[in-house]
Amino acid sequence: MEWHAPWDIRVTLDLFLGGLGIGLFLLSVLLTAYGKNRYRKLAAIGAYLAPVLVGVGVLFLLSELGRPERFLSTLYNFNIQSVTSWGGIFQVAFMVLSLIYAWLYFKNNTSGSFFRVVWGFGTIFAIFVGVYHGLLLASLGRPLWIGGMVTALFFVSSLLGGTALILLIKELGMSWGVSQKMAKEVASASDGKGFNFTVLFCILTTLQLILVLSWQVSLSRGGLETAATANNMMDQFGGLWIGFVLLAGLIIPILGSLYSLIKDRTSEMSKGMAVVLSSLVIVGGFTFKYIVIAAGQIKFPIPF
Amino acid sequence: MARYGMVIDLHKCVGCGACGITCKNENNVDRDIFWAHHLKDTTGVFPNVKYEFVPTLCNHCDDAACVKSCPTKAMHKDDKGLTLHDPKKCIGCKSCMQACPYEVISFNYNAPHAFWRDLASVIDKGTASGQETAQEVGAPIPYYNPDRAATYEGIRSKGIVEKCTLCDHRLAKGEQPYCVDSCPAGARTVGDFDDSASEVNKLIAQYCSRQLKPHAGTKPKVFYIRSF
Lengths: 304, 228
Ligand code: SF4
Description:
The complex is a heterodimer.
Chain A: H1 9-35, H2 40-64, H3 73-76, H4 83-106, H5 113-139, H6 149-174, H7 180-189, H8 197-220, H9 224-263, H10 271-296
Chain B: E1 4-9, H1 18-27, E2 37-45, E3 48-56, H2 65-69, E4 75-77, E5 83-85, H3 95-99, E6 106-107, H4 130-137, E7 161-162, H5 168-171, H6 178-182, E8 188-192, H7 199-206, E9 209-210, E10 222-225
Parallel strand pairs in B: 1-10
Antiparallel strand pairs in B: 1-8, 2-3, 4-5, 6-7, 9-10
């Protein structure tokens, strides 16, 4: 009999797109706090895209269920011990809040107390959803996913993906028609009090690299079963892992953003560099989630 | 509350696999799905070779990981301590399969028993097709056991999981699980671990016992005594 991994790529797509969505939402929230007027367009695009990405991810997940028409039963047959049950609540709450948030941006109604309430609760639920993605895997107790590291890894990967996507949108969309001089002014205006995307990008990629390396070291010392799963992951996906996750997805973006900051710590990466590095981070983030989810499901003989 | 489980005496087990086959009969289980299965291992070099055969099934764990992970409470514990599955609540998310350390939960990717709906025969116009055979018998599958439907779907549907119930429908009538009754070597004993006088408790008191993956922390209730 042919062995199927219980979850196919649609679960990866849910966690990846959902992660990008909450990352974008949190970036939009951050930009709103930093300078509602200066970053209005970017924050608004983040607000519009967040529920779309999370929603498309959820659609992939639903299509992966054997009985998708029963999905709502996770709400009324709620199992307090099940992380998946909590995830259902968090995702529904986040979808509602992020849609209202996007609507308020669309209506240009971003200064009232209602907006602040949506902004605050949206942030909380975005964090809950981001944490839920990794916690779901950790809660299943499989050797590759057990422990808290996967939760942190998935959450930082989502923040990084959101940051990379907003950078991409900024460079490909919002800087069109903006003169070089004006772009320079925005950059210098960010010095000290504004928002520097390159700094955030550099911090998150570095943090993720530290987490990934710590995770790999802890896996190799995590007992027979865990070490065997980790070895199997490298046997099956070693090339993709080193090439896309580590080199393209983290190390090159760290070096590129660092180079840019060393050259001029107050300015942003050049447009070309931002586009390339953001794309690499997004591809690396997808590959990372794909490998962790696929390799975590590999079946091992039960020792006796 | 009772805590039903099983003791398997590997010294008595002859590795015939009857438990796996009769389980399919009793529970209307499809060909590619195994509620009762086995692990096999051959070690050493001739003439010093060791062969081991270890029958497996759902461990009806006290702290069942599948029950904790199920988002709809479809996987649940009953008053006999059995880990059971409610097919009407199952959404087919497969979280239980991921959480189970023993890989004893199976998913119906397609409607089960396709063979008995298939019109193709081994020898065209020479042998009966699966569908013809089932039609002759007048049942969804030739070996259909209607008793199974007393506590579970007789045949589980596409898109949900299924697993061993320790023959809860037979236990409810005071009978033994069918794998226990059909074992020609009498290697399997079922009983209540909360009853100090039960046969299962006597066996694990008499012999050293082992469980599969005790480190998973699920407190499995299938114990193995002696060796194959
Ligand atoms: S597949 Fe069914 S029984 Fe298993 S966790 Fe999902 S809903 Fe529960």
